[in-house]
Each structure stands twice: as C-alpha cells, then as structure tokens.
Specification:
By secondary structure, the chain is an alpha+beta fold. It has 8 helices and 27 strands.
C-alpha cells in the first residue's frame, strides 16, 4: 500500500511538472502585445561618430527603453534612402545599460521590404543575423553579407527579441535586451511593433535603430554649403538647413553642409556650439546625432577651414559639377595692400564671432579656392556681387552668383532652388545660376530693393579690362577744368 501510494504521489508530481512545462513552453512561444517600458529619472546619450551615409530618425538621446514580455516579438524602423540603388551595410542598435538584468543576450537583426499591408514590413530579405551585444549604447551589426540592394521604395531594420523577459514577470528582472527610444519631437512616424503575428505603427516615439548604406558614386552635382552660423544669424542658418532637408540629397545631387554654431542665440536642436558636417537627407534636422562628423570649434573666417571643407566634400561626394555657397554676413570689396588696411572697414564674408570676429577677406577666399575647380560659386550674403569680388575668384569658378545690395535675413530660398536642381540634375552651371537668380527674385517679388545676378567668369577678364580703361580715362581728366 505504501508503495502504491508513493507511486501515485510520484505520478501526480510528474503530471504537475509536465503541465507546468507545457504552460511554460506555451508562454515562451506565445506572441504577446504587452511591452515593458523603462521610465528612467533622466535621459542618456552614448558617444558615437556618425558613419558616412548613416540614415537616422532619432535625436541621439535615449529617453526611455522597451522590451517585450516574451520572445518572438520585434521592434522595427522604416528607412527611406536618399537615392537609389543603395547597398545595406550596417545596422546600428542602441541598448539601455544594465536593463533589464545587466547581462547581454542574443537577438537577431532582420531586413524587410515595405510591401506589407499599408506599407508595413512584408517580405523578409535574406536570413536573420544573430548577434550578442558587446557593449551598452550603440552596437554595430554587419549586414553587408546579406547582399541586399534597395532599388526603390523603403525598407525596414527590425530588432527580433529571442529571449523572454523571464518566467515570473514582472517580479524578476528580464532576461533580454532593452531597446532605447527617443521621445522628443519631431516624432517621425517610422517606428513599428510586431506582436501576435501582426505589424503595427508605434506613433509615439522614435526607436533608436539606424542603418548605414552605400550610396552610388558619380552624382551630377555636389552642392556644398559653408553655413557660418557663428554669429547673430544662427537662427537663420537653422532655417536654411531645414529648407535644404525639405528637398534633400538624391542619387544625382549631394547636399553637403559644414555648419558652425554659437552660444546665446538659438537653443534649438541640441544647442551644440562646435562645427559639424552633414550630408542632408530627407527631413533631417541639424542635431548633433545627425552630423557625419564633429570637427570641433573651427574658425570659419580662416581660409584653411574653407579649403579643408571643399576638399573633404569633393573626396567624399565626387560629382560632375561642384557648387560652393558661402553663407553668412557679407560686405563686398576691401581695398587692400599687404602692409596696410587703407579703408579701416572690414570687407569680406563669413564672420566668426567665437574666434575674435575673424572673417574671410577676398584674398583669403582666393587662397582657399586656389587649385580647385568649381562649376558655380554663390554668395548667400549681402554686398558680395561686385566686380572686385568676382575678379579675385574668377579663375576657380565657372559661374558667380550673388547680390550687389544688402539681402533679407531669409536669404536664398533653398527649397525651391534645390527642388529645381534635383528635378533636373543635368542642369548646366549657367542654368543653375539663372535658376538661383529667378527663384530669389520670385521669393521676394519685384517691388523691393532685392538684387541677384549670375555672371560667367569666362567674361570677367574682358569686363575688368574695360573698367580699367574707363577708370584710366577718368583719372586722366581729373586735373582738367570742369566744363558746364
């Protein structure tokens, strides 16, 4: 009897254990919509350098983090390449330190087409790429081996959670990774959740998932903007950056910006105060996280700074044509001899208040551009289109564009100018110069004092000769009596 009773108890115990095992198995494989959210006392940022051609839809600051209760669920971000075709190179995933449990667990990276219902993730491209994190913050996962080329449309990078939070949720720490999320505006509407076998948009935050792509070479134009906001025009510089990103780079047009900021004027977009470089992509904001690189505080009034930017942009974004736009205050021509400033008035462009109000004289601009070949040189600045200005740089630029009068703070309408250029990437330099002039006048109307003109520098030498001859005649008549 005792043996039978013991056997019955043993059988019951086995049955209970089997039932518990079945429940645990069902729980670990059941898709569950409930997410676990970390609500930290303060946000975190993680040191990282933006990779070339990195697509970003977050501000680089982690405000919260998420994990799924159970495995087999996913977070994803939708990406729009600036041009086509693009090869996918690296997925970047940001993980919150020591949460949920402080241990690294394996997860997988997946790539999807945007051919699901309503543009949701649809077809899986290639195989999932398993990965175990080596650090907190940003982790780079090589996906180039998948051999994925995007020829049109959008694609998704998904973080696939492979482990449960834990069998006794929520009492015990989770046994998975926590994905960082950005909650600050703007919210791009690109974050997606996968649960219960269905994809759905998560409209409230920006999941911190990024992708590095390889863009095709051989663009028609590289449009370089030397955006000097290191003075009281910082706010206007931000506005013009946003105008550029409303159009953005394409397969045929690279929009490259070097942007210098200053304390005390605008606190928007992280209020950083150094000098950063950007490749402008759709909807990009000038946050620190979106910069390709931070080159520290640079003196935009130093010719070496300008020269370095132009050389960098030409190497990184080769094209058939190069346009350089000098953006800031301008004051035109300065009479100059090496040993003496005869006018006592600063004449030039690109004032840098942080560096002692230094600026680029015409001679320094000429020095910076020596040996370079620009299809177009433009001045989004006051008083820069004088024959003396054009003469200094005529050897290094085909077309010269600017205003002989002062300009409104808003300056050039980059959205319409670049809209025309991206719509017609085979535009000639002279046609682009004409477009800038017509779009500028169109933006302010013909009733004011605004001026803008485009000059073919191939004709400048003849104009200079004619002006010199005319000046000599005037000088020769100075001592003659005035005849009424």
């Amino acid at each position: 009897m005792k043996w039978k009773k013991k056997g019955a108890v043993f059988a019951i115990a086995i049955a209970v254990m089997l039932l518990m095992t079945m429940i645990m198995v069902l729980a670990s494989t059941e898709p569950n919509a409930e997410k676990v959210k970390l609500t930290p006392s303060e946000s975190m940022t993680f040191p990282t350098e933006r990779a070339l051609n990195e697509l970003i839809y977050d501000d680089g600051e982690a405000d919260t983090a998420w994990a799924w209760n159970y495995a087999c669920n996913k977070f994803a971000v939708r990406f729009t390449p600036p041009s086509y075709p693009v090869d996918l190179d690296t997925a970047r995933i940001c993980l919150w330190p020591d949460w949920p449990d402080g241990d690294h667990e394996e997860f997988a990276i997946e790539v999807y087409e945007d051919d699901g219902p309503g543009g949701a993730p649809g077809t899986l491209l290639g195989e999932p790429v398993p990965y175990t994190a080596t650090d907190w913050g940003w982790n780079d996962i090589d996906i180039s081996g998948l051999g994925i080329t995007i020829g049109s449309g959008d694609f998704y990078i998904a973080y696939h959670q492979l482990t449960d939070w834990g069998p006794t949720f929520p009492e015990t720490p989770g046994d998975c990774e926590g994905l960082c999320s950005d909650t600050d505006a703007p919210i791009y509407g690109r974050s997606w959740d996968y649960y219960e076998g269905v994809w759905s948009l998560w409209p409230d935050e920006n999941y911190m998932i990024r992708c590095v792509v390889d863009l095709p070479a051989g663009a028609g134009w590289t449009f370089m903007v030397y955006l000097d906001g290191d003075n009281n025009l910082e706010g206007a510089a931000i506005d013009d950056f946003l105008e550029m990103s409303s159009v953005s780079s394409t397969a045929d047009i690279n929009i490259s910006v070097q942007f210098d900021r200053i304390p005390g004027y605008s606190s928007a977009y992280d209020d950083w105060t150094t000098t950063k470089r950007f490749l402008v992509t759709p909807g990009m904001t000038p946050t620190a996280a979106n910069a390709i690189e931070d080159i520290g505080e640079c003196n935009m009034g130093d010719p070496n700074t300008l020269s370095d930017f132009v050389e960098w942009a030409m190497v990184e974004y080769p094209a058939d044509n190069y346009a350089l736009i000098l953006w800031d205050h301008g004051s035109g021509w300065k009479k100059w001899v090496p040993w003496k400033d005869e006018t006592g008035i600063a004449r030039g462009i690109c004032w840098d208040d942080t560096n002692g109000n230094d600026y680029l004289t015409l001679q320094e601009t000429e020095q910076a551009l020596a040996g370079k070949s620009l299809s177009l040189l433009g001045y989004d600045a006051c008083l820069m289109h004088m024959i003396e200005v054009a003469y200094h740089v005529s050897a290094y630029a085909g077309i010269d564009v600017g205003s002989e009068e002062t300009m409104p703070v808003k300056g050039w309408p980059f959205n319409t100018i670049l809209g025309d250029l991206t719509g017609n990437p085979s535009m000639t330099p002279s046609a682009l110069g004409g477009t800038i002039v017509s779009r500028y006048i169109e933006s302010y109307g013909t009733g004011g004092d605004e001026t803008q003109s485009a000059v073919d520098n191939g004709d400048v030498s003849g104009l200079v000769t004619a002006v010199d001859n005319f000046a000599q005649v005037l000088i020769s008549k100075l001592d003659e009596p005035l005849v009424c």
